[in-house]
Amino acid sequence: MSFETRSVAMDAPTGDKLVGTAIPYGRWSEPIGGQFRERIERGAFGDLAGADIKLLYMHDPSEVLARTKSGTLRLRDSAGGLRFEADLADTSRGRDVRELIRRGDLTGEMSFGFYVDRDEWNAKRTERTVKAARLVEVSVVVDAAYGDRTNSSLRDVSAAAHEAARLRLELHKARMERWLTN
Fold first, then answer.
1. Signed CA dihedral, 128, 158, 51, 14: sign only
2. Where are the domains of the chain?
């Protein structure tokens, strides 16, 4: 089983809180690695009460912004997805994130990391529905490849930041190539 991350859009921050949808339910992703698209089924992460989920910056475990264990990250299930509310600390990274979102340098995009326990594939293995998974973290990211859709698949937490950066560069390159040809 491999660790995976996905990206979604986040609402604008209000004061010292970040709020948004960490995981959209029932929405097809853009193609992941050009291979398949997926959707997360509502309830796939089960009951998160008592779970220690962290809000990270760029999937970096040394960049903790909030966590459920301390009560600074709160998760709530809704029809459209797993909603979150986070109290950002008055730390250098917390202040940086707040300011970068206010300025528009961070566009409010989020990613989430998880392990899949049960999924279903179509016959051609081009579509996957995640039925059961273990959520590990949600992350504030820069220029996620698909905004409010899934965008990457990773093997472990330590590789997450490198893979996310690689995917963002690929997306940027494709956007520039389209722009140059128009």
1. negative
2. 3-181
pLDDT along the chain (182 residues), means of 10: 55 66 82 83 92 93 95 91 87 88 80 90 93 92 52 30 54 70 72
3-state class of 70 per DSSP?
coil
Strand partners, 38: 128
What per-residue confidence (pLDDT) applies to 64?
A: 95
Task: Give pTM, 2 decimals.
Answer: 0.71
Tell me the C-alpha distance between 105 and 117, whole Å: 35
CA distance 29 to 27: 6
Reported in sequence order, the residue ranges of the chain that DSSP labels E, i.e. its strands, are: 3-9, 17-24, 37-40, 54-57, 60-67, 73-77, 81-87, 109-121, 127-140
How much is the pLDDT for 161?
Answer: 45
- Which whole-number Å values give the CA distances from 18 to 10, 53, 114, 119, in the listed order? 8, 15, 21, 30
The DSSP code sequence of 24-51 is ESS-PPSPBTTTBEEEEPTTTT---TT-
Place of tokens 């998880």: 114
